[in-house]
Design goal:
By secondary structure, this protein is an all-alpha fold. The protein is built from 10 helices and no strands. Helix 3 runs parallel beside helix 7. About 6% of the residues have low confidence.
Length: 215
C-alpha cells in the first residue's frame, strides 16, 4: 500500500525525530534514574501507547483540527505540563523512600506498580500537544492517494513510528538505567539521583508550559 521509497524516507525522518532528546526521552531517562531499567522500559511502552492515540486521531482527521486550533493546543499544553510538574514534585518529595536499607537495596528504591508506571507514561504521551501537531503535519506528506485510503496509509505510518519509538526509547532507557549502578555505593547519591529525576520531570513540564506552538 505504501511505496518502499516513501516508507524508507519516513523511517529515516522518524529515526532522527525520535533520537532527538525531546519530552519523551527526558521523561524515560528520569524514570530510569528514579526506578531503574524495568520502570524505564515500561515508561517507554506506556508513552508510545499514548502517542498511538495521536496516530489514530490524526488518521481519522481530527488531528488536523487540533493542530489548527490554538485553544485545543493550549488546553493540551497546560494539562500535559501540569501533569509532568505534579509527577516531578511527587518524585522529589518521596526521594528519601527506601533510604533506610543498605545502599545496594536503596538503589532499587520503592518499586512502582507496573500498571501505575504504564498509566502515568500513557497520560504523558497523550497530553504532549507537539506530538499531534508533528504527526498531523508529517504523516500526510507521505500519503499517495493512488495507493489506497489516506487514513489507512497514515495509520500504517503511525504504527511504524510507534514501533521505532519503542525500540529507540528503550535504548535510552537501558543506557540511563545502566548508570544507576554507580549510585549503589552511596545512599546520598541515590537520594540525589531520585531528586534529579524529579527535577527533570518538573522542568520538562515547565518547558512544555512556556513552549511556543511552532517550536
Amino acid at each position: 500500500m505504501i511505496s518502499t521509497h516513501a516508507l524508507a524516507a519516513f523511517v529515516a525522518l522518524a529515526v532522527v525525530i525520535i533520537l532527538l532528546p525531546g519530552p519523551s526521552v527526558l521523561f524515560i531517562v528520569s524514570r530510569a534514574l528514579q526506578h531503574g531499567r524495568s520502570a524505564a522500559l515500561m515508561t517507554a511502552v506506556g508513552n508510545t501507547c499514548g502517542v498511538f492515540i495521536h496516530v489514530v486521531v490524526v488518521a481519522i482527521g481530527i488531528g488536523a483540527i487540533v493542530a489548527a486550533s490554538a485553544t485545543a493546543f493550549l488546553i493540551l499544553k497546560i494539562a500535559g505540563g501540569g501533569y509532568l510538574i505534579l509527577l516531578g514534585v511527587q518524585a522529589i518529595r518521596h526521594r528519601r523512600e527506601g533510604m533506610d536499607n543498605a545502599a545496594a537495596d536503596a538503589v532499587v528504591g520503592v518499586p512502582l506498580k507496573t500498571g501505575a508506571l504504564w498509566r502515568e507514561a500513557f497520560v504523558v504521551g497523550v497530553l504532549n500537544p507537539k506530538t499531534i501537531v508533528f504527526l498531523a503535519a508529517v504523516l500526510p506528506q507521505f500519503v499517495d492517494p493512488a495507493r489506497g485510503p489516506a487514513w489507512a496509509q497514515m495509520l500504517v505510518l503511525g504504527l511504524v513510528f510507534n514501533a521505532l519509538s519503542v525500540l529507540l526509547d528503550s535504548g535510552y532507557a537501558l543506557a540511563a538505567s545502566g548508570a544507576r549502578a554507580w549510585f549503589a555505593s552511596s545512599p546520598t547519591r541515590v537520594e540525589r539521583m531520585k531528586a534529579t529525576g524529579g527535577v527533570m520531570m518538573a522542568g520538562l513540564g515547565v518547558a512544555l508550559l512556556v513552549s511556543r506552538r511552532a517550536a
